[in-house]
Structures are given as structure tokens and as C-alpha cells.
Amino acid sequence: MMSDFTSGFWSTYIVVFTVLAVIFCFLLLTIMGGGDKKSPDETTHVWDGDLTERNNPLPNWWRGLFVGLLVFTIGYLIYYPGLGSFPGIGNWSSVGQFEEEMKDLDAQTKPLYDRYLMMSVQQVAADSEAIGMAERLFLNNCAQCHGSDAKGSVGFPNLRSGAWSWGGTPEAIRESIAEGRTGLMTPLDGILSESATTQVIAYVRSFSGLEHDAAAAAAGQPLFVENCSACHGEYGRGVPEVGGPDLTDNVWVFGSSERAIRESVVNGRNMDLTEGTQAMPAHKELLSQGKVHLLTAYVWGLTNR
After folding, report:
1. Is the Cβ–Cβ distance between 226 and 235 less than 8 Å?
2. Do 85 and 103 sit in the same domain of this protein?
3. Residue 171 CB-density burial (10 A; 0-12 exposed, 13-18 middle, 19+ buried)
């Protein structure tokens, strides 16, 4: 089990503090629990002539419960993680228990999902029961980024737009879900001058009929071919093999304003989970093949039903 402690001091501190607390409880029980065995009924204090305090020992059943609790505590701390970074001899962890429970759940539900593997994506997309199951899978696993309506948001693609950076075939969608996608928009700061950047932006906006300076767009055309066509194609129609978006469809993941496009051109867009930025994570370790198949049919059906 990997420790959450970044310093060995805190692990040692917790171990020492916990052990001393248990020892203190044992000592307290020993010192205070016995009373005076020789004269248990001896009066030790009297208040107002009637209120008396006697030196009676604690009941054995109470002391037994207390001792049992302390023994249980020691056993628990030995078997389960509780002493700093010590994992316990049982090697239990909440993550491990969760994974085991998920395996059991997947084993129970696998036949339910796998029966759709015998059907094509198109057939599954036409099955209302299957799509109902797939929609719940989408809400649980995909809506965090693409929205509950699958229309996305800034930085996350709209799956209802019909615009596919990596391709919209069932095979491409299945690969996106199972293997994930990471993209990179190379920053051109230092490569393009300020005026050249403005010209490229004007040319990009001209693809989808957005307001632009015609003269600047004309000057930006050769700059675009030289610096951007490898990913977006010579005419801006995208290159699905490398995930280069189509710039002619008027569908913008990061926005179509001059400011948003300038941010992409100058600073680039690093869509890599290792950098803590937007990316499509792989789900093959989280979802069974049957679930991936259902999700593929659901996403494909958003623009093909």
C-alpha cells in the first residue's frame, strides 16, 4: 500500500501517539479500577453529613468490557492500517475493497452487457432498451466532461455536432472510448510574429465565414499551409489520423472569437492528462467490452439515428 505521508516524521508521530494512548488507557484502568480491596465499604469523603463517597472498586463486567475494547483496538491496529504508514498484516485498503466489489459487480452484470456484443453498433443504436442502458453509462462516465446532454463545453467536444477530430466511425469512436485520446496544439509563439499571428487568425476565421479582414486572411494563407497544415490539412478540413480538428465546420471546442483562436495559436493547447489538462482518458480498464460497445453505439447514434 502506498503511503499518503510525504514525510516519515508524521507517520512516526501517529504511531508513537497512538501507542502511548493505548498504554495510558491500560495504566489508567489498572491504577483507577482496583479500588481498596481491604476495605471496599470504607467511607472516604462525607458532604453535608449525608452524601458519602466510598472506595468501591469498579464492577468486573465494566472492567472486562474496557479490557476487551483495548484488546480489540490492538488487534485492529495490527491487522488494519492505522499506525501511520504501516499497512497492517491484513494488507487491507479501501481502494482494494472497492476494486474487489467492482469486480464482483462486473461479474454479475457482464452477461447483461455482453449479449449486445453479438449485435452491430447500428443494431444496438436502434434498440431502445440498449440505448437506455448506454445513456446511464454515459451519464456516469462521460457527462462530467461532455455534459449530460453530450453538447460539451469549453475545452470538451460537443458529441452532437457531427464534428469528429479523430473520426466518427464506430471503430474510431470505440478506440476513443477504450484507449483515450491525447492531443497537442503546438504553440507558435516565437515562430509567428504578432502581425503573422493576426493574419493566420483571419485566415482561420475565413474558413467558416466568420467576420475577418480579407487582406489579412489572404496573407495568412501561406503561413497557415507552412505552420498548420500538417494537423489541420492544407484547406483546414482536419487530419483525423493525428486528431487535427476540421476548422471549416464552424464547431469550436475552445471558442471561435479572435481572442480564443489567438490563445490556441500563440500558447497552444496541451490536452494531456499527465499535465493536468483536458484529455480523453482511456476507459478500457474501467469498463468491460460490453459497456464500451454500448457507449460506442450511444455516441455514434447521437448523430446517426
Report:
1. no
2. no
3. exposed
| 244 belongs to a structural domain | yes
For β-strands 183-185 and 269-271, DSSP reports them as: antiparallel
- Distance, in Å, from the CA atom of 153 to the CA atom of 148, rounded to the nearest integer, reads 11
Among the candidates 92, 124, 156, a domain finishes at: 92
Q: What is the pLDDT of residue 58?
A: 75
Would 1 be classed as within a structural domain?
no
Q: What is the pLDDT of residue 31?
A: 79
Give the relative orientation of helices 289-301 and 128-141 as an angle to the nearest 10 degrees.
100
Q: Which of 92, 122, 148 is the last residue of a domain?
A: 92
Per residue in 266-301, pLDDT tens? 998 875 545 545 578 999 988 989 999 999 999 999
Residue 12 burial class via C-beta count within 10 angstroms: exposed 0-12, middle 13-18, buried 19 and up: middle
Separation of alpha carbons 192 and 197, rounded Å:
6
Contact criterion met (CB below 8 Å) for 102 and 38:
no
Give the domain extent around 256: 183-275
Q: Give CA separation, 237 vs 10, 232, 250, in Å.
A: 56, 6, 11
C-alpha cell at 294: 454500448
